[in-house]
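Worked example

This section walks through a single chain of length 410. The input is the sequence exactly as stored; nothing has been trimmed or padded.
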Amino acid sequence: MVNIFHITTVLLLSALSSVYDIDMTKPQPTYTDSLGYGYDCGTVELSKNQKAPMFFSVKVPEGDYKVTVTLGSKYYAGITALRSETRRMVVDKMVTRKGELRDVTFNVNVHTPYIDGKKTVGLHRREIGEMNWDDKLTLEFNGESPAVSRIRIEPNTPACKIWLCGNSTVTDQDGEPYASWGQMFPFWFNEKVSVENLAMSGLRTTSFIKQNRLEKIKKELKKDDYVLVEFGHNDEKDRHPGSGAWYNFSMNLKTFIDELRPLGARIIFVTPTERRNFQNGMAQPTHGDYPAAIRTIAERENVPLIDLTVATTALFNAMGEEGSKHLLVHYPMGTFPGQETELKDNTHANAFGAFEISKLIIEGMKKLGINLTDYLRNEWPGFTPSEPDDWQQFYWPLTPSGYTEKPAGN
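Given that input, the structure is written out below as tokens.
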């Protein structure tokens, strides 16, 4: 049927879901929970001279969705950046002439805290109400002159699924100027791959398990799903009895193997991203025995390993002591609205740094010969940390977040 807001909804007989075909050149409503779709986050329809981003949401059940967006406008030239949910990168920059329309198709994973009617994921206060955990599929149209003509959303059954487990270096960061490789990672895949990111700032292996995030994976995992596990930053600060790289941390990593491998999961361990720590012009290690512990368990248990510690160290050295600041949250006071102090964070990436690190993960998967790389988009350029991209050429119009709160953990 077609209702007065010009959104076509087709009921699928095989699923309790709908196909939404939304003509964005026609008037659309403001989102309400009862209506279930519309302009969201206080934004309205795009116009020729609009510079601010626009958000559009559709209420959908938990799951994966094939989304096809027609970017461009019959009425004006566009420069559009497209993101989904909590700032997940979809299109970095698309330039369209007046009258030019271009389709982009991708997968969006929508998940909620619910597990089985009894258990739920224990959310951090910053996750409550966040786009990453609500019951909506949200798209953000950003850029110098964002332009969109149509949105089509339909249930998807991806060929492969990747679960992400980790901390602030992996999670979908909600506010500028922070970002993680996890929210850039889906950019490189076509709609045949789903990425479900259960990481959160401040988490250790212990708290990830305690908050039922591993339980969420176990309940929903299908045979041959991939599970990427990156921890260490926060575990290494534990000081209680049994803590340390070789006991509690190693035991928790073994728990991931013991509980997921029997279900058919393809586990990949990832050593932690290195912190920016230069001495005598060279990046120095900060993680103690934790990377070695991960490597040891991976070898002993025959788990594929991406050595992100080594790769990010090489990236820092390639950019140099000063240049490497452009990978991380280093900004003078007043760079962002409400920022009253200088930001000097040697752990957390900005959008450019997260983008570069996501490339290191892809290259790590390619070296392992993992078939997920069969689903890389045509845009994949290849990457080596010794030849980083030019940070000045990276296009990332800011998502309006309203604050610059540092993620938990270090």
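What to look for: Residues 158-397 form a domain with the Rossmann fold fold (CATH 3.40.50.1110).
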